[in-house]
Amino acid sequence: MAMGLVITEGMSLIKHSLKNDVLWMTLTDSKSGNAFSPSMAADFHKIRQTCSHQALVVQSEGRFFCSGGNLRHYQSLKTKDEGLQQNQEIQDILKDLEQSQVPTVALVDGIVLGGGIEFLSAFHQIIATPSSLFGLWQRRIGLTFGWGGQSRLQQRMGFARTRQWLHNGKTHSAWAAQEMGLVDAVVLRESLVFKATKVLSEISEFGRDSFARIQEHSSDQETAFKKLWLSGRHKDVLSRF
Questions:
Q1: What distance in Å separates the CA atoms of residue 153 and residue 180, rounded to the nearest whole number?
Q2: CA atoms of 204 and 181, how far apart (whole Å)
Q3: For the chain, is the Cβ count within 10 Å smaller at the N or the C terminus?
Q4: CB-CB contact of 172 with 142 (8 Å)
Q5: In what order do the strands lie in the sheet with 14-19?
């Protein structure tokens, strides 16, 4: 995959820290509504690639978890090809996130719009506060899915719900988003971190190797099964009989 976006050193839009092998990221560009611009996307990918971690948790500062693409940035571009190339690179970064071999969790306490929904759909688990809002606004700006979110949303919510949401461009509450299948859990703001830690603990209970293999061969479970047979946890469990 082409990952050609360039991040300027010293201009990070994301704070990060590593605690007990969990990489915690916070989107800090509240001025743009944490728009997932090419620079933020490159920063996000660089941190993931350079920080060794066994799980990822992403949260945000400000009213928006992610307001989508940075329209002011795209308006400044001189050619159509330049914009399409940058969007392709962001799509590649989100596909890499989707295929992460360690569990990923998004903690949403705010508004998510347009491309922000596509960004969100690349996480394994999505936990939101009751006041959070979710809007698939692509058609409101004359577009459709640009970052690969259609297939991910269809896997989460089904084809009919995804199409209907794209058509009507509505904004939904956290409870409605959970009912639709986008959000996995709705908890109070003060419980977000606790819930994320609990979810990661539950996922890791049966070992990391099987999770990684399932992700590596998400569309080919037979291959994943063969790689796991008589290795790692499976071998340990069988030894007890």
A1: 10
A2: 23
A3: C
A4: no
A5: 14-19, 22-27, 55-60, 104-108, 125-128, 185-186
Cα 33 to Cα 80, 169, 182: the distances in Å are: 24, 19, 21
- Distance from CA of residue 130 to its chain's centroid? 19
Q: pLDDT for 51-90, tens place per residue?
A: 999 999 999 999 999 999 888 888 888 888 888 888 899 9
Closest Cα to residue 130, out of 68, 200, 83, 195?
195
DSSP code at position 124: S
Report the DSSP beta bridge partners of residue 125: 105
Query: In the numeric block, which tokens belong to residue 23?
Result: 């990489």
Q: Phi and psi (nearest 5°) for 85?
A: -65, -45
Could you give the CA distance from residue 35 to residue 27 in angstroms, rounded to a whole number? 9
DSSP state of 137: -
- Which DSSP string do the residues of 30-68 spell out, in sequence order? GGGTS---HHHHHHHHHHHHHS--SEEEEEE-SSEEE-S
Instruction: Give, rounded to a whole angstrom, the gap between the first and last alpha carbons of the chain.
Output: 44
In this structure, are residues 44 and 35 in contact, taking their beta carbons and an 8 Å threshold? no
* Residue type present at position 239: S
Could you list the beta-strand ranges (E) of the chain.
14-19, 22-27, 55-60, 64-66, 104-108, 111-113, 125-128, 133-135, 171-173, 185-186
